[in-house]
Amino acid sequence: MEMKHVKGKNKGNIMMYALSTCGWCKKTKRLLNEMGVEYDYTDVDLLEGEEKAKAMEELEHWNPRRSFPTLVINNECIVGYQEEKIKEAIGA
Amino acid sequence: MSDRVEVTGKEVDKLYERLNREAEASGYHLNTDVEHTKDLVEGLLVNEKRYGYWACPCRLAEGIKEKDLDIICPCDYRDPDLNDYGTCYCALYVSQAVLKGEKNLGSIPERRPSSEERKRAKPKSIAKGVSSLPLPVWRCKVCGYLCAREDPPEVCPICKAKKERFERFI
Ligand code: SF4
Questions:
Q1: Is the CB–ligand 1 distance for residue B75 below 6 Å?
Q2: Dist CA B145 CA B164 (whole Å)
Q3: Which residue ranges form the domains of chain B, and what is each CATH number?
Q4: B167 pLDDT exceeds 80?
Q5: CA angle (B20, B112, A80) in 5-degree steps
Q6: ipTM for the complex shown
Q7: Ligand 1 in contact with B74 (CB < 6 A)?
Q8: Which chain B residue's Cα is nearest to A30?
């Protein structure tokens, strides 16, 4: 699956399932960028066919509702843009 | 990977103005966080170019109109979410209380049933016992507007949802 990597401080494993068109996803990306942490993300709406199905399957494992953004921070799953929770999980 | 669809700032501003005008004219309000709102308007325009309709920017569309009908903006879930949370799922539309700053915005839970639940759901049955009515009554699934006429209107006069969003009510 195609992942985009954003360079920054290593605060552990941060992975984000997003949509390129989604407002809360953009806010979450901005927050991570402001915090300057390293993370990977994938915009599922830009994937196709098998890759998309695989990404959704993976997402379902973390978040059965398959909604966006879904953030996985060191195996802790945060659904939606939740500033405080995200900061806490990252330890900022 | 899908082709990247480009949308210009001018297109975004134009649709933003239009949605703002239409919302205010019928008692709805756009989110005053203009950066966020314009991001969403851009998402609507991208989805229009990609799928041919305004699929909700914050949900993954299937790209088949019949299957995405409930999430064409304004979606079937906007008004219940405005009632319960003061905002639609994407926070494009907000309630009066949010507008006045009495309520803070954040992500809200997804109300749309899962694809399995949607498949299982049966269409609502038409109310019986009023078969003597001279005309059928149509209901807009987005805002609840009712009208008695042979066919639903082209566009809902209240929320601007298109004809296909109407259901036979009585
Ligand atoms: S009204 Fe519904 S479809 Fe439109 S932006 Fe809000 S949540 Fe998305």
A1: yes
A2: 14
A3: 9-120 (3.90.460.10), 123-170 (2.20.28.10)
A4: yes
A5: 75
A6: 0.92
A7: yes
A8: B36
